[in-house]
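Before going further, learn to read the protein records used in this course. A complete example follows; check for yourself that the lines match position by position.
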Amino acid sequence: MYNLKEIKKTCDLFFKAYQSYDDFIPDWLDSKPPLRKTVRAILSKADTVDLPEDFWKAQASLYIDAHMLTDPKSIRKMLKEVEPFASEDTRKALAFWADNPGFWCFYAIKETLGDDFFIIEDLVTGQTHLLHSSDIGYMQTDVAYRNKHYLSLMLFNGSCLQAIGFPKFNSLPASDLQFFLSLFSPGLALSPAINRNFIRLLDLESISSLPVFVEGDVALKQTWQSFRLKDFSIFDLEGTWDSQEKGRLQIYRFVQEAASYASLPNFSVLEAERGILTATLVRDNKSGEMGLLTSTDTSYTLFALLLNRSYPELDLPEKPSVSISLGLSLLLSEGTYPLPWNKFKGLLDAQDEYDDNPIPVPELTPERLQELLDLSGDDNHVDIRDVLSRPTAQKQAYQDTYQVDPNDKGFEMFDWPVPPLGIQDLFDSTLNDSVVFEVMEDKRSLDLFNTLTNGSYANLIEQDGLASFITSLFADAYPEKVSMFLMNAFLWSLYYKGSSWVPARSYALEILKMKSYPLTPIYFEREAFLQDFTSFIKRILCTRGLCSLAKRPSPEEVRLGTFTIKGSDAFYSLIRPGEYRSY
């Protein structure tokens, strides 16, 4: 039985000591240039991420505390430097922390004791602790924070743990957090991995409010298991599988089981998870590298057994090497992370568009997140069937639909293949990773580009290649969330309309019609985007050899984007739409 009244006194003393220690941080930080650089990087996020400036200041402070208070050597050095003038309580606290350094803890509440005391379980080690935290107490009063998993920098005060800074929160299991950190620092324990990758950890803030997605009692996942087979035929697995091929890479999507599947030990999974079950195989036909991806842990087991039966030499493990929640999978699919399946990412992204029965995932807008919170109970679980039953589940209710201004009707393009939504959703790749375009870089295309540009960019092109050179033109000019879409949409339009002289404004207008969101929140006004993008065409794309001007435009033509352009011979020698082959 805890004497919480006495322990609370200790907590108050330690908190005062922590506040006084804060006065000595600036001098300590001056001796740590790498930490100062990261602090500046954290604070600079306020310019690009829509969160209050105070949030980023708090994150910078937490980052500093984590590096100081988890390192006994740094604590002892500070103690030695401040000993002549620090208070006795501060000296005692620093000495105690040097022997009992801080650590990161990912935890769940097991029991609420009152007066902001809690029994918590460390989700990584399984150990239980007594925690005092007024912030955790406050978070239990708000449905957005209640009963989550929490991540805190912890200090021990001799009686209980105390959390430093406002706790981070999400619904991820410990295995998700460990996998995320292993992408950047494989093999490191939790505390050093977080300290080393604190900025990357901030990416998880974007999914902190997401619940756990389930269907009934089954959690939706993304699993991955790599393996290698020198010889492979999809017919060995029987059943029906869709297939697409791109160069040496091939993808197979499970469609229908064969009668022989009934002899598999867990065949019942197929019927039980029919609405959410997906299984995908990817293969490098040259190297034999392969991977199995499924949408639940149990479906992984089923298809691993199927592969082991067809190829006994495989001996795939009972559990996959990667099994992450749908929430983390959504985050990883939107960024550039060193994922085990990156080699096949282009094919996997394309597969989603050709899949007539994908796992339904709700649009993650602020309004949609609130809707999910309303659907989730105290266990933070949301049944995907409840999401789909909502009227907005199959609607893109939060994307803007662009209406062409009457004055721009004359600039609309006709008689060309507007890319379907399935293709448009692939417009997020670089040219090197594209499954939409085939890049045919050879001596002829290099000579044509260098001739058009008088060799001004020859060294850069020789160093990076034409695909990277073109990608960088857009990546350097536009925010990450729109740069690749703008590139791919323009290249598609130019390929099909660039054989004739067409106003630059027409290209910008058609891109706005394709996907006005998220362009509209960036530019706010239609004309701002049209003028900016047509200016970019003239200043950058025409001078780098992608397109040609019919004549020197007047200042008014430049301002309105009414000057006409054509795709260059260099462009057509380099790029053409790729082809998918389905079986």
